[in-house]
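P.,

For your records, the input lines for the assembly:
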Amino acid sequence: MNSHRILFEDLVKSFAAELYSYAFGLCGDRHLAEDLVQETFLRAWNGLAKLRDQRAARGWLYTILRREHARLYQRSRPETLDINDLNPAAVTRYDVSTEAFAVRLAVDRLPPDYREPLLLQVVAGFDSKEIAKILALTPATVMARVSRARRKLREMLAGQESRANPKGLSR
Amino acid sequence: MNCLEFRRQLLIDPQSSEPEFLRHGATCGDCSREYERALSFEQKLHAVLNADHPPGLESRVLLARDLRLNRWLPSSQRQWLSMAASLLLALGLAFWLGPEWSRPFGTGADLSQAVLQHIQNEPEALDNDRDVDPNALAELFSRFGARITGDLGHVSYAARCNIRRQEGVHLVLPGEKGAVTLLFMPNEHLPDSKSVRSAHFDGVIVPTSYGSLAVIGEKSESVSPILARIQAAVDWDT
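Structure tokens returned:
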């Protein structure tokens, strides 16, 4: 029991922060992201005895968190609205004063199938094989999806740039 | 690697450390400019997506585990917990009412026995070198309408616990002889202080404005200084 406690505490200290980033990337809500991280670790605690290879713990935690997020959407699908209708000043969770706002919105607009592997690559630093394992896809599919995700981001950001600067004037 | 392959890889993973990819990015004029743009965008993406986690997140996760707070559990799991709790209650009643088993918590049993039994049932609480986060402690006490107003010193264990079916706070901190257990027991009202002695433990249970406080150390531990310090450091709304 004590060794489980020590292992669990090590996992929390090592991975809570990066899991929070992933959770926030998935749901876009700070409070929900924290709940997802807590729920992930409570489930991990209950299943710790089943974790045979501690080197697999990180991927295992991401898999749990992703499932928790999916469950959350099965239980209650939050209200959605068109991102173009958002009033940037009202969206306090973003840093609206910088380019970060535009990038964040563009990431949120990505279809989940593209956003998830991109988050796992950029936030967690997993390679295609690891992402494929977490998402139950082939590595080739993962590569195709992150590639399309980046292409879409570029298109969206280029579109925003041209809307903000229609005459092509440099800033 | 030709330009087409390079551009394809740039979309898949601009941070790739594959030698051929790096060589092409460094030697091909057009591609190197595109490479720089992609890396710059990747930095922005990384900065945006790596959200700062809220302070105390780790402590709250550990506390949630310790407290086994079911408010974070999904409703399906809460239902299971409710069923399990009902079953335990039924077993508890059988235990309470059974003629052979009535001694531990029956009329002859007192609070000091329940306290000692609680400590003996949770040996891992004594064998713990953690440093409980002060914010987590404050949150724990706030659930009971109490505030930490002074210095508790080093606390190695903190959890919500049940003694005689009453919820309380279980802390462990270091004493002269070893770990000292503190049990804050709201709703356990004693007329007078009571010494607690066993083969392994010495301590005291004192009446307080909110209920009782047990301070139990290893054999021969002098618990009075700890008792005074803790009573001065925790303020209960009564």
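Two observations worth noting. The two ends of chain B are 75 Å apart (CA to CA). Chain B touches chain A at residues 8, 11-13, 41-42, 44-51, 53-54, 57-58, 60-62, 64-65, 72-75, 124, 127-128, 130 (CB under 8 Å).

Regards
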